């Protein structure tokens, strides 16, 4: 069929989401909703898998009902149901997969299991109709990798973090400095008023060739700098905190920019670099990537923030491409905690 109407479900981390897309020559989001569990986990300093799984199971039906109502469509008017089948917290992924199986069987619709990372990686095709091949930098709380994208099922990993993800490093930095979670926006706001030159944090792995990155040492360096100030003065001033954030963010920005330069140099045939993931919201990071793209003569694409972070529109969109590629899943579709592209 030329135009597909697809229901997508996402529940692999701490957001429960559903979306309905119509995908013809262009993709159109007919309805979408995201129920974030952030507040449920706030007291624990991180996502608690059991709490997440339970909340997903409770919210999925509600999300589906919401998007059906908002789109004015009935379930039987869908051409397929796409669902995140991994990677992620297994309880949440299982909740989504079970919900999708129930809907698919009930309405007699095809089921399509989608890799969450593929959802992120294909987002620039949903938002900007980008042609293959292109370079994707996925930078979120759980992921950090460069992907060469040649097709909906054709990804090549050029490099990535060997320890913490950038969003995780932002979140840990915020925790060390007593700032609110999620840490990214809080650290960015403090950094805007800080002096990035006061703390000259090392830029990890820039001395090594390739596109791999490391951020756990940066977090340790920040911890040491913080403790040195506390040992000397008995506590942090507002300006100390701002300068620490600025130094941290500058190091993060420089590493991501330099590794992006290398990834582009390794793929001279690519005309586009796209970003996705929550850290792509950071203006300093975004600005640096834009400069790298400009210097390399390639187009830079950053999807709107709501489509950079976890959402179901990207899952429905990836589902449409996989449907067109002939993928069909059945009741044997498994939830996978680990699933490299
Ligand atoms: O993609 P996402 O919503 O979820 C996954 O991790 O899958 O990304 C969330 C991460 C969090 O670690 C958050 O601190 C980070 O993205 N983040 C930011 C900013 N906004 C969100 N990091 C840096 N600067 C920001 N403005
Ligand atoms: Zn994600």
From TrEMBL:
Subcellular location(s) of the protein: Cytoplasm
GO molecular function terms attached to this record: tRNA N(6)-L-threonylcarbamoyladenine synthase activity
Matches recorded under InterPro entries: ATPase_NBD, Gcp-like_dom, KAE1/TsaD, TsaD
Sites where the protein binds substrate: 138-142, 171, 184, 188, 282
CDD domains, per database record: ASKHA_NBD_TsaD_bac
Reaction it catalyzes: L-threonylcarbamoyladenylate + adenosine(37) in tRNA = N(6)-L-threonylcarbamoyladenosine(37) in tRNA + AMP + H(+)
Top EC class, one word: transferase
Enzyme Commission identifier(s): 2.3.1.234
Main location, first listed in the record: cytoplasm
One matching Pfam family: TsaD
Keywords in alphabetical order: Acyltransferase, Cytoplasm, Iron, Metal-binding, Transferase, tRNA processing
SUPFAM superfamilies: Actin-like ATPase domain
Binding site for Fe cation: 116, 120, 310
Cofactor note: Binds 1 Fe(2+) ion per subunit.
Reported cofactor(s): Fe(2+)
Domain Gcp-like: 28-317
Function: Required for the formation of a threonylcarbamoyl group on adenosine at position 37 (t(6)A37) in tRNAs that read codons beginning with adenine. Is involved in the transfer of the threonylcarbamoyl moiety of threonylcarbamoyl-AMP (TC-AMP) to the N6 group of A37, together with TsaE and TsaB. TsaD likely plays a direct catalytic role in this reaction.
Family: Belongs to the KAE1 / TsaD family.
Protein name per Swiss-Prot or TrEMBL: tRNA N6-adenosine threonylcarbamoyltransferase
Organism: Roseovarius aquimarinus
